């Protein structure tokens, strides 16, 4: 399964991407995460239904200093072998 997430709120400058990368590796989730120029964070995550539920639940909270306002979730596509932090887009 692959999902695309858009995370809004105070999610840049709070180590969101790096913390998500570490959390994803712990859960066995692959894909990528990046900052967006509109101050949101975008991620594409791939894994088992249970692993995706766990990383999506985490995305609603984020790291301790984040203030997540909302998470938009849609079907995603891709086939990934690891989890990466990409450049801002």
Order of helices and strands: EHEEHEE
Number of helices: 2
Number of strands: 5
Strand order of the largest sheet: 4-1-3-2-5
Measured as a percent range, the helix fraction is 25-40%
Shape: globular
Walk me through the structure.
28% of the residues lie in helices and 37% in strands. By secondary structure, the chain is α+β, with helices and mostly antiparallel strands. Strands 4-1-3-2-5 form a 5-stranded mixed sheet, with helices on one face. Helix 1 runs antiparallel to helix 2. It starts with a strand and ends with a strand.
Core attributes:
89 residues, alpha+beta, Alpha-Beta Plaits, 2 helices, 28% helix
Quick structural summary:
With 89 residues, the chain is an alpha+beta fold.
Write the layout of secondary structure elements.
Layout: E1 2-10, H1 16-27, E2 30-35, E3 41-46, H2 49-61, E4 67-75, E5 83-85
Helix pairs in contact: 1-2
């Amino acid at each position: 399964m692959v999902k695309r997430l858009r995370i809004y709120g105070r999610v840049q400058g709070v180590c969101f991407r790096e913390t998500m990368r570490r959390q994803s590796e712990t859960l066995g989730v692959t894909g990528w995460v990046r900052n967006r120029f509109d101050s949101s964070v975008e991620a594409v995550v791939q894994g088992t239904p249970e692993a995706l539920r766990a990383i999506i639940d985490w995305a609603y909270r984020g790291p301790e200093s984040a203030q997540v306002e909302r998470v938009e979730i849609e079907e995603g596509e891709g086939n990934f072998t690891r989890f990466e932090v990409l450049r801002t887009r």
